Amino acid sequence: QVQLVESGGGLVQPGDSLRLSCTPSGFTLEYYAVGWFRQAPGEEREGVGCISNNDDRTIYADSVKGRFTVSRDNNRNTVYLQMTRLKPEDTAVYYCAASFAYWGGLGPREYEYWGVGTQVTVSS
Fold first, then answer.
1. CA–CA gap between residue 81 and residue 117 (Å, rounded)
2. Please, how many CA atoms are within 13 Å of residue 105, restricted to the half-sphere of its CB?
């Protein structure tokens, strides 16, 4: 069964850091572009960052640029979303998604496989 699993979410305070992990089962993530998305209640799903499949090219939404970093560890078959200087407006369910292509971008329609999400709550 092909699926993605996100982990690492939780409740943190403003200014804290958190690292999310995206791990697949049933395929090797190295050959896929991977995107991170988030969705807050009542909001559209938003792309926050993505990474290419072979040269680690990345792109970020303006709202997280300079604070979030997407990286991959092919030895662990895992892609990460490192989040720093978290703000209350970063509160959302975070999803990873994979596209069997060099690049996926920040649009959700480019991705074939999705995880079920992990909750991130930033609150004092």
1. 13
2. 4
